[in-house]
Amino acid sequence: MKDGFLKVGALVPEIKLGNPIFNAEKIIEKIRDAYDYGVEVLATPELSITGATCGDLFFQELLIEKTEEAIKLVCEKTSDLDITILLGTPLRINSKLYNCALIINSGKILGFVPKRNLYPSEYKWFEPGTNLYDIPVNILGKEYIFDRNVFEVSNHKGAYYDVELSVKEISYLNPDNKTVFVSFNMTSMNDVVSRTSKIKKEALKLSKENGIGYVYIMPGINESTTDFVYSGYSLIIDDGTIMREGEKFSFESTLIHADIRLNDEINDYVIAAEEKIDKKAKKELDKYPFIPDTKEDINERCKEVIEMQAAALARRIKHIGNGKVAFGLSGGSDSTLALIVINEAFKKLGLDSKNIISITMPGFGTTGRTYENAIKLAKAYNTTLREISIKDACIQHYKDIGLSEEDRSVTFENAQARERTQILMDVANMEKAFVVGTGDLSELALGWCTYNGDHMSMYSVNCNIPKTLIKEIIRYEAERTNNEVLFDIINTPVSPELLPPDKEGNIAQKTESEIGPYELHDYFLYHFIKYHSTPKHILEVASKAFEGMYEKEEIGKWLNVFLTRFIKQQFKRNCCPDGPKVGTIGLSPRGDFVMPSDMDISVWQE
């Protein structure tokens, strides 16, 4: 402790979801480290004692009992330390559950702050903290009253800090107008591309305008599950200056700390209104809404997307514990991105790339170009390559079901996709691996996948990445590694290669000739989901955005294809596998986009 300064810290603990005792032990371990560094107030993320993503397990009596044991353990094991701990935890109060921050010092609970502004999904498990104002509350046998979220620092008379859960602005109960020197924002927010840079910008502005310290903390990568990625971002700012930033995507606990100045002259706690920018109007004229404007920003976006995908996949690999994956490597853009991400995940975990089982499965539509590229890629990334032709198996299957050898219907195509998926699943069983899917967001939106074929996997690593962005990511990787194969893949026509090549051996079945340009579909998707725009409005703004590239009639034609497929193919999305959400547009039925499978299409086609 230095005179005139308050040392604050942010701890992102290593956790196991639903294991409060393990989590408490990890938190205690780092509390002692923080104390040795001289930290006086230490914050953890929201619900860090259980993990924020426990879902309906919050209803389980056993989890709450173990949480109470874990809180007692933290108090007992830190009773000899004069350090204030802001511990994120669920609390059972009057038979109801609240999402809270416990304020603990020297083993004693000083008070608590309940989360007042819940996300819509949280109302299923938690009560809003507004129900607890000025009501005596029993916590572990003692009574407390919640009437503010401002607390005095134990060793600094007259120095106060406030505690908030998952808010972007300072908005606290301070009836006595205490002078607050530092604000702690404990969140349970997942990460998506550009989110942390926006948070940093907002926090710097807020800190500077109010002349205060600001501590922000998000859950770590061990929270990542199902569709969400958590980065463990943490940040300490003092008067508009970044003091420390924590490491993102670490499986181990991270701790940052810094000194905050305790000035006597503090600006009034008034939040200046931010300038309102019509981002929607600007975005409507942007042909590629998923891609940043400058090369520098594009590269940064690509790097961040790969990092988030790889971190989420690494979390799943670590959870399963076998250290092996299998995936289909076609020589197309989607499977190429999957390989890039799988490789990064293996590097992150220190695993042998030979445990990446790349399976190329030549069929009736496979061309020499994609076949050779798949072989070269598998070798370039030092994976285990298996080549398994699907031709004989499909010919036998066609005979079994009575399909003519000359038939080129959707049955001819889909049987191949399902045969490839069967091979992947069975090889994964043989190798004690799990199947990583390669389908992307654009295909998911259009339902451009074979049900129970390439539609299915054990983890869908590209499910949140649109086609237009995938090309940019591969371009970024190609330039970074100087890999000529990647440059060729960027220029390869998008195709499922389920129909035979043309006479010259080139790809005959081109996806965009059948369903329309992906640049249009990605544009439609962005505005339909992000801004809930009507078809009529999308047609008008798309005609302006793509002026000189497509006629309005053509845009209207493909917009009708998009809407029809998007609505009629919801049944495929309703049973899609887990996959990481890394962008703001997602179609997972588990929280991002909920729609009945039997939605009437007529109103959208008017």
Describe the structure.
- The chain folds into two domains: 5-261, 4-Layer Sandwich (Nitrilase/N-carbamoyl-D-aminoacid amidohydrolase), CATH 3.60.110.10; 283-605, HUPs (Rossmann fold), CATH 3.40.50.620.
- The protein is 37% helix and 17% strand.
- Mean pLDDT is 90; it is low at 169-173 and 264-277.
- It is built from 17 helices and 19 strands.
- The chain has a six-stranded mixed β-sheet with strand order 5-4-3-2-1-14, covered by helices on one side. The protein has a six-stranded mixed β-sheet with strand order 8-9-10-11-12-13, covered by helices on one side. The chain has a five-stranded parallel β-sheet with strand order 17-16-15-18-19, sandwiched between helices.
- It has 606 residues and is α/β, with parallel strands linked by helices.
- Helix 8 packs across helix 9 (410-431).
Task: Summarize the biggest pleated sheet.
Answer: 6 strands, mixed
CATH third-tier fold name of the largest domain: Rossmann fold
Uncertain runs = 169-173, 264-277
For the record, the count of structural domains works out to: 2
Average pLDDT metric: 90
Look at the structure and give the CATH class of the largest domain.
Answer: Alpha Beta
Number of strands: 19
Global structural class: alpha/beta
- What strand order characterises the main sheet? 5-4-3-2-1-14
Distance between the termini: 69 Å
- Corresponding CATH architecture of the largest domain: 3-Layer(aba) Sandwich
Which homologous superfamily in CATH is the superfamily of the largest domain?
Answer: HUPs
